[in-house]
């Protein structure tokens, strides 16, 4: 059995999507595969491969009267131990939601198509793949494991641009039309560090409830306007307004102000500010500018977005 899910980028409504703002989301061409084979060992053999086919994590799990545990006596690193805990958490939740016994035995192999440091959805694509395998609700599995808004699950399942809204009880993902003439002027630049979104969310939560409601309304409006843009100038103006709103909400400087003040074009943070990718608009190929500053991963819109 083989399953596949797309990676993700959150273009608008970072943080505010947690409170019901309408977000503009783009699934990526690159994602993650999950291959599952039955065995008769009563164990789960887990292997995770990176985009080059190299194993970056592996473990074996068994089920005892105390729950699921790793059979490894030692972990290669503290990071491996943390990943094992996450795998156990996912397997425990998935087994409970599916009502199936996963410990008749399986060989599980995950295969990434993108660098796992890029923040394109190593976890969300895994959650969605496991949900496909066991025929369970991916959003429920996410809630019992990593939590979050769920936009990344929506992207994992999408076949093109979408808008996404989360309410207290449900999620709404709708196909969006985004085919402006200026996609050739849009690029994505990796900031050389993976960002933990939990810290940034804590900043956002320090706002008053009134400020959050106003922000949700403004951001949702920007999302709707972005989808109607006909010129690059209009698109950039909306991106700049969005950056200012979020900067104020989380009390962090805009990435352009902090890192690229002399850049001729717009730069917008995506997802958790301070890491992962930023979206860049430029009338000319900006590769040389970013390489000179030490940022060597620049991907054109058409090469990354589904």
UniProtKB/TrEMBL annotation:
Transmembrane parts of this sequence: none
Source domain of life: Bacteria
Alphabetical keyword list: Kinase, Transferase
Protein name: GYDIA family GHMP kinase
A single GO molecular function term of this UniProt record: kinase activity
